[in-house]
Amino acid sequence: MQAQKLPEDSCNDRTQKPSSPENAEEPSRPKRSDYIGRLESAIQDYLREAQVPEFQRLCELRKKGWENPAGDAFFAKQRQTADNADDKTARHFYTMMLDIGKDMNRQTGVFSIEPSSPTQQPAILDMCMAPGGFLATALALNPTAQALAFSLPPEEGGHNVALDLAAYPNVTAHLCDITMLAADIGVSSAEIPVDHPDVHGFLPAHFNQKKFDLAFCDGQVLRTHARASYREKREATRLTLTQLILSLSHLKPGGTMIVLSHKIEAPAMVQMLYEFSRFSTVTVYKHAKFHAKRSSFYMIASGLKVDSEEAVALLERWRRKWKSLVLDMKLTDERFAEMAEEGAPTIEEILDTFGERLIEMGRTVWGVQAEALGKAPFIKSKAEKSGSWRS
Ligand SMILES: C[S@@+](CC[C@H](N)C(=O)[O-])C[C@H]1O[C@@H](n2cnc3c(N)ncnc32)[C@H](O)[C@@H]1O
């Protein structure tokens, strides 16, 4: 297929609507670093040059969607339904997560754990369990597995757990805010400033040296989560970093991480995918129907070399970032932006070694999203809706 050339900036983040669903959880977007800005431009140039048909189609559809207020209304309604989930919606959410898990496993086999030795019991870590669809799928496929699961308590705004935990004595579940698990992150109580607004809220160790084969990191910041005001600005980064640190530092060599991610071409995402590709096999998955109109997808990193130099260095960088983000009340946007570059790979290294793989994985994600957006009522023209090509 001959691809059309796109006008400059037509799929650039800078043109993204500030109120678009992808930004919904970050009320005021923190300042971009020079590094992130340069990486973003380099990615956009790279993709424009490569003329990837799926990406070009998606860019055109996104633009159409932003121009139509019905698109905003559509995503606002979805958010409202998610925030005010009654029992029926919660049940639907659980069934949906079951279906996504089953389909992901059908396509990739990642939920079926191959124990590293015949005597070892499979072990599953679920960072944000509720409603429990992924965990139920993984337990059905690995009935002898032990699981450690966390989830935000419903009284703090978290989702209800639909999985019948009483039927699973092999699951240890903790209802807590995982971003408060300071001891498991590797932060001592002496490192927590005495005047920190949450000084009494940080939690003791919950992991007890346990190591896991498979980790789910699909937490999502909820608008219903009641939290201290200092957390409003960078909550999505705080939640993602917490899940990544706790999972990578508690996985067995050769283990697998499944990470809910957004916008595969975004600079921080490209950086993350590349960094994982240095010590694991990285692939992506997107369901053809559920959340298909959104940019979300799952990164699957398997065969993780958790003891490799690259993994150890990355964990170290993440921990430094976590401490600044969570503990330093004087952290400025400028300083936070600078941290994106510290120890990070160069832009040339990322695109030279990973550009083609990024396009390969991106085509899967962009293709599904474009297909779904193309059929969305707020994208279809009047003519298409009425079935007439003339009007
Ligand atoms: C997309 S859902 C997870 C779906 C789930 N893994 C499944 O398979 O059914 C996102 C979850 O993140 C949880 N969450 C959000 N913020 C959290 C936090 N700070 N600590 C723990 N859980 C959190 C929410 O309560 C919600 O259950």
Name a few traits of the molecule.
seven-stranded mixed beta sheet; 391 residues; disordered N terminus; binds S-adenosylmethionine; alpha/beta; 12 helices; RNA_MeTrfase_FtsJ_dom; SAM-dependent_MTases_sf; Rossmann fold; methyltransferase activity
Note the run of SSEs as H and E: HHHHEHEEHEHEHEEHHHH
User: How many DSSP E strands?
Assistant: 7
The biggest beta sheet reads:
7 strands, mixed
Basic shape: globular
In oligomeric terms, what are we looking at?
single chain
The number of helices is 12
Q: Nearest-angstrom radius of gyration?
A: 21 Å
Mean pLDDT, to the nearest integer, reads 88
Q: So, CATH architecture of one domain?
A: 3-Layer(aba) Sandwich
Unreliable spans: 1-10, 12-27, 386-391
Proportion in helices: 40-55%
The first-level CATH class name of one domain: Alpha Beta
Q: Hey, roughly how much beta strand do the residues contain?
A: 5-15%
CATH topology description of one domain: Rossmann fold
Going across the biggest sheet, name each strand in turn. Answer: 3-2-1-4-5-7-6
Bound molecules: S-adenosylmethionine
